[in-house]
């Protein structure tokens, strides 16, 4: 039997090393020597969100070491998010005092990214967001704490050392992964390393993951390309395929029973099966219930769970497209089909104050408006509703290849307002072309397609037992654009 690959920790953090050691992991330490400030300022310029920034930093540190070290290399990063801002380690005691003063009586988040590479490729990513509530304290209590602990607090982003009795006494409550609070999500990491045979226990052959997308027609779907690419990058054996199933519920239920029996981990579900999926499932998540449709079915050991990732896909792509710069207060949603439901739920989750919908069939807009507590407007009035609108979203199939363009006059739309078209064939719909020409920021449907795929991949390919965090990046974008261009050319 060959020895398992060596494990290297790409971090100079004493606490990360002590956590690994306390869990019986044999490893060596190689400091990555990465200049985090350069990565942070580059990431800020491209408008990267804080979760993506933490992940980017963990990856950079990991890969800086993985370039020269074979076997497993572990990288991690942590960002403190407080009242929508990111914080670095305090530079001096005055800053530490101010930090604790600001955070007392309030809750903040420690975004933790932990990644692993194997023989030079990132194979696993994990993201945790533990929430910490600092108890109410007066200045004298904060001064006394800082005096007792001294400059050691400067090594912590929060200006506290929660792992010590003194530091723990600063908190009312901590929710989430305790080790992620300290800098490394050890249990998800151990699960992944064990699964990969890193600890040399008798190797158990893991069955290749089977997953797919169900629809009709479905041959055009880009989902297999996305999932199979993520599986390839993570060196996970498995296959994601497109499966055509006739529209009737009976055909759908029979196909799901069959896939379950074949050992499929789960499937995405698209037109015309989103309501069938909800009906078939034993249980639906709150999101799927609120949206009233499912685009994910997970085949767990004793139940089938329906979920909907359209809303999260929409939020993630909106977030990236907005560069985290502004809040959406007013939105106009065109369309009242399945996708509109996810978009509306997402906008409500983002606390968008005024959401209006317009749909060709007015009765459908009225029904949706009633269900979600919004305003329904006449389809013919769509161009006159744009003044004061922060966001225009097209969720109709207008503008899709083979369909007529969306006929709308953008003259009243403010220049900074975002135009989001969830259609992705073509990538630049006539609506986006028109919006771009007048200088509005635009977001195309490919972004949402990639982001809505991530929860399914995490659950089915990475759910062993912890989810992994697949990456939406330029390489994936280019792969999909290449496939779309080939289609246009053929
Ligand atoms: P759906 O439930 O069938 O709804 C279609 C919507 O388009 C309805 O509001 C319909 O209006 C409207 N529509 C169709 N033809 C029209 C026309 N000629 N004039 C005006 N309105 C018209 O479909 P869906 O699931 O919501 O999907 C809609 C689009 O979003 C599709 O192109 C789909 O590919 C895309 N999509 C993209 C993503 C992504 O990740 N990027 C995710 C989901 C969906 P009526 O009610 O009047 O029929």
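Q: What amino acid sequence fits the structure above?
A:
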């Amino acid at each position: 039997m060959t020895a398992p690959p060596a494990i290297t920790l790409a971090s100079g953090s004493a606490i990360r090393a002590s956590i690994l050691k306390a869990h019986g992991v044999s490893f060596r330490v190689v400091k990555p020597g990465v200049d985090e400030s350069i990565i942070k300022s580059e990431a800020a310029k491209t408008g990267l969100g804080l979760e993506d920034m933490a992940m980017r930093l963990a990856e950079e540190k990991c890969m800086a070491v993985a370039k020269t070290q074979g076997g497993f290399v572990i990288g991690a990063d942590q960002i403190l998010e407080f009242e929508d801002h990111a914080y670095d380690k305090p530079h001096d005691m005055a800053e530490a005092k101010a930090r604790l003063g600001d955070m007392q009586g309030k809750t903040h988040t420690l975004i933790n990214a932990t990644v692993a590479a194997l023989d030079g490729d990132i194979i696993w990513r994990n993201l945790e967001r533990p929430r910490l509530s600092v108890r109410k304290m007066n200045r004298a209590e904060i001064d006394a704490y800082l005096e007792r602990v001294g400059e050691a607090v400067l090594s912590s982003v929060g200006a506290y050392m929660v792992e010590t009795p003194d530091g723990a006494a600063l908190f009312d409550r901590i929710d989430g992964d305790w080790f992620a609070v300290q800098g490394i999500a050890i249990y998800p990491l151990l699960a992944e390393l064990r699964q990969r045979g890193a600890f040399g226990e008798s190797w158990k052959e893991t069955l290749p993951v089977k997953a797919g997308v169900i629809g009709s027609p479905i041959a055009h779907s880009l989902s297999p390309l996305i999932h199979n690419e993520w599986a390839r990058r993570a060196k996970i054996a498995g296959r994601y395929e497109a499966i055509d199933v006739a529209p009737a519920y009976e055909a759908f239920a029979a196909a799901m029973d069959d896939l379950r029996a074949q050992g499929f981990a789960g499937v995405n579900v698209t037109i015309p099966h989103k309501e069938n999926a909800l009906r078939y499932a034993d249980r639906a998540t709150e999101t799927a219930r609120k949206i009233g449709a499912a685009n994910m079915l997970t085949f767990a050991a004793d139940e089938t769970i329906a979920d909907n990732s359209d809303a999260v896909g929409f939020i993630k792509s909106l977030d990236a497209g907005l560069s985290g710069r502004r809040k959406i207060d007013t939105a106009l949603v065109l369309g009242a089909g399945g996708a509109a439901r996810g978009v509306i739920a997402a906008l409500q989750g983002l606390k968008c104050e005024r959401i209006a919908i317009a749909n060709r069939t007015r009765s459908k807009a009225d029904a949706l408006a009633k269900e979600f507590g919004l305003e329904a407007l006449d389809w013919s009035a769509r161009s006159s509703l744009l003044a004061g609108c922060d966001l225009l979203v097209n969720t109709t199939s207008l503008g899709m290849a083979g369909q007529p363009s969306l006929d709308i006059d953008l003259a009243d739309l403010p220049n900074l307002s975002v135009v989001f078209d969830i259609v992705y064939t073509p990538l630049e719909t006539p609506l986006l072309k028109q919006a771009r020409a007048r200088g509005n920021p635009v977001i195309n449907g490919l972004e949402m397609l990639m982001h809505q795929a991530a929860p399914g991949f995490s659950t089915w390919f990475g759910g062993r037992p912890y989810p992994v965090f697949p990456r939406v990046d330029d390489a994936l974008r280019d792969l999909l654009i290449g496939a779309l261009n080939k289609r246009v050319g053929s």
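Q: And what stands out in the fold?
A: The CA atoms of residues 104 and 137 lie 6 Å apart.
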